[in-house]
Amino acid sequence: MSRTSIFLNCSWRIFVRLSVAAVVVTVGLSSLPSSWAEDISFFRIGTGSTGGTYFPVGGILANAISNPPGSRACNRGGSCGVPGLIAVAQSTEGSVANVNQLANGLLDSGFSQADISFWAYRGEGIFKDQGGVPGLRAIANLFPESVHLVVRRNSGIRSVRDLKGLRISIDLEGSGTQVDALLILEAYGISPDDFEAVSVQSGIASDMLRDGELDGFFIVAGTPVNAVKFLAADSLVTLVPIDGKEAETLRQAYPFFAEETVASGTYFNVPATKTLSVGAQWLVTDAADEDLIYDITRALWHESTRKMLLRGHPKGRLITIDTAISGLGVPLHEGARRYYREIGLID
């Protein structure tokens, strides 16, 4: 069986388990004591496709914040989640879909790239025509998705400014990567007329670069990215830094950008590279109950959740309290703000 088949089978099994669990919980409510049933509430977390990162991370967090009546006590090795809460990770089309469903009341919470939530909150960028979602609020920044500017190793490209006159993929139109790429190019004084822009997804861009049809491409994703990893394994590429005064200007203008370093060893023979990142963030709306979001935020950062994240997914180690409010593109929900103020993370 191929790796892809194994992964898809595992993802499907996870999806089936979550679906069956939801059915069992729903059917089982009738057999619970009436006092328990009255205390149960459900909380939907919009994630992404079953083959992506958002869905499995969402499943871990849903488990961590859940604490149905009758659960074993936290101090006895049981659930340390919100009493009476049953959270469910729901597969969706991703950031834009989650934001739209939050706006329409179809989700209780959802994951989104910080840049997408920023544009949605302000009614700008890709949300300019449909209008903003000013009620968006953040529970936490979860993990960084790094901006990669990938170029051929022997191309002589050392700076973003060196892209002039070259053939560069900026990803698909309407994607978060393309929006970010154009902002970065503008900060370095490069207009769309200064280079040959190609709009293809990262997998195709990787193949085109390997075949000599591209000089480089942008991709925004959590490290390591397979499209980059396989090229680096053949010593074909390196990364271009996105730093200096231009990066500082971007961070001041667009609060969803944060400083990031792709560590040495992330990709074969590619040195540590300074860049920018956008956070994968957990969102709700301002209509969410303040006490509930306070309790969810507290459960998110409980030590038992940390253990579940470390065991459950490679990205789990990056979900830390130190970066909980880094690069937020929307305001904190008042419940989350209360918790962070309580622990001294904010004034």
SSE layout and pairing:
Elements: H1 3-28, H2 34-39, E1 41-46, H3 54-65, E2 66-67, E3 82-83, E4 85-90, H4 95-103, E5 109-113, H5 114-122, E6 136-152, E7 167-169, H6 176-187, E8 196-198, H7 202-210, E9 216-221, H8 226-233, E10 237-239, H9 244-253, E11 257-262, E12 273-285, H10 290-300, H11 303-312, H12 334-342
Helix pairs in contact: 3-11, 10-12
Describe this entry's structure for a reader.
- This protein is of the alpha/beta class.
- Strands 1, 4, 5, 6, 7, 8, 9, 10, 11 and 12 form a ten-stranded mixed sheet that branches. The protein has a two-stranded parallel ribbon with strand order 2-3.
- Helix 6 links the parallel strand 7 (167-169) and strand 8.
- The protein has twelve helices and twelve strands.
- It is globular, with a radius of gyration of 21 Å.
- The longest helix has 26 residues, at 3-28.
- The termini are far apart.
- Residues 1-32 have low confidence and may be disordered.
